[in-house]
Amino acid sequence: KKSLILFWLWSPLGWIGTILTVWCALFFRDPVRVTPVREGLVVSPADGRVSMITMALPPAELGLGDRPLPRISVFMSVFNCHVNRAPVAGRVDRIAYRPGLFINAELDKASEDNERNSLVITTPTARIGVVQIAGLVAKRIVCFVKEGQSIGAGERFGLIRFGSRLDVYLPVGTKALVSEGQTAIAGETILADLAGDDPSRAYRAN
Is 185 helix (H, G, I), strand (E, B) or coil? Predict the structure, then answer.
């Protein structure tokens, strides 16, 4: 309706309104995903590009210790679906929100300086940290779950409005099954396998 009013006022404004309406519809899309449910798999919590794979000290509020852990970061552009999904099945044992800056989420220091919401999901064998990080134009982080709640791998747990990033902290020794620059699909792309030492679970890089 607003776009029609803009067309009535001035045609170019109407086209701008139409484009913005279509873009918002695409941004808030929430497609169905098919999640692998094999025990030990860690799936991507976000659509986007694997921007960084490194060893990093987890945020203190996660309570995951004071030594570096394997971290996989997925950067979401303004064109990606921004619904966030649980990387593993387990219990949400901790949720901690921290206000901060809104610098470019692709920068490494965004993990420390930007506004963020951190979760710890406990599985029978591990504790996984997942952090929603606001980006340059992100102005609101939304979390759908509560502490003590059980969640399945690939289930929706939150949303970040406009370009942002998700960090996943894994147990020491966990190897990434993705590469930097690779495209990730929330709830579907396998980031790591907590049972990767099992010889019956093999993966190949192409």
Answer: coil
Query: What are the angstrom distances between the C-alpha of 182 and each of 61, 95, 177?
Result: 29, 28, 10
Q: How far apart are CA 189 and CA 153, in angstroms?
A: 12
CATH number of 33-193: 2.70.70
What's the whole-number mean pLDDT along residues 72-86? 91
Give the β-pairing of 69-76 and 183-184: unpaired
- For residue 145, the SS3 value is coil
Give dist(CA 57, CA 90) in Å, integer: 23
CB-based burial of residue 42 (10 Å sphere; 0-12 exposed, 13-18 middle, 19+ buried)? buried
| Catalytic residue numbers, as ranges | 164
pLDDT band at 163 (very low <50, low <70, confident <90, very high): low
Structure tokens at 206: 């192409």
